[in-house]
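User: Hey, my collaborator sent me this sequence without any context and asked if I could get a structure. I don't really work with proteins. Can you help?
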Amino acid sequence: MDTSTIVPEVPTERKRRGKPRIPMPSTLRPESIASGRERIYDLSGMTHPSFWTSDGKQCRMIYVPRQSRLGISSHRTFPPNTKGYFYYHRSAGCSELAGGIRFRLCEGPEDFERGFDLLTPSGKPWGYPLLELACHSNSEPFLALAQAEGFVQEGTVHAVRELGLQREQYRSLILYSIAEPFVFDLAASKQDIKIITIKKVVIVSFMMQKFAEYMKSQDGKRHWIFPLTGSVKLQLELSMLPEHAPLGPTLVLRVLEVIKPVTMDPNYTGLVVVPPEPGTLVYRISRGKKRVVCMPIHRQRMSADILELAKEAWLNADI
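Assistant: No problem. I've predicted the 3D structure and written it out in structure-token form, which is a compact way to encode the shape of the chain:
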């Protein structure tokens, strides 16, 4: 590896309290990074590293937030060997809204294409989506760089800001198409899906209770119990099952793959939750029978918007 292309990973210039002033990336273009024209970063063990522009603007990033037993929010440190490059990601064929900053784990520029994206503990790619870059002033330096390199148009930034998203919204389960696969943490309590278009936020109230049961716990009180741990990749699809025909257009969940091993709490005494298996639909036990979890679109608060998204996603479907 040509070490002449790598700048020191921990800059010597420091702020008060001994915190390093880490320079901002000069590019988010994968091709420029692979050519060796970008610094390599080592975020291992950092809690909220701050990145600084040459004119003194700061952008502070975190790995993932967590809640303590007392309900106090804190931040996890970046995992060991978090070494690599920031870059801008947008999947081919996806809306410009679906872009964002990611971190590619690798040892040097020649390894960039063979590297892997940093993941969160649940198995989702870590990063800062455009929704957050555009709505949070702390992210302005990274947004400005993404705009300067042509990844994001000013009109798109304006449209995102007009949506009026709150921070809890753009940190929740976000999709940009109703048929987009997504990673789901089986132990998470965040349930609704928010589908973001250039004009509106469409909420699909579908996930609630699908992997949980409302039952008595050891303290004798009734709570929502989440007996499963692990994460899976899921996808919404239109049901073709004859038992759903009388309900009109109906959504179901397909399990695409297991991201993190699924385990059932051995102390779970309920009879409702069914562990998801790749290639099958999501099931629950209802009235003593294993039944496909379904969501008739007409029962949704935003049914007209969901129906419009379904028609766009499944052009040949009889809706």
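In plain terms: Residues 303-313 form the longest helix (11 residues). You can pass these tokens on to your collaborator as they are.
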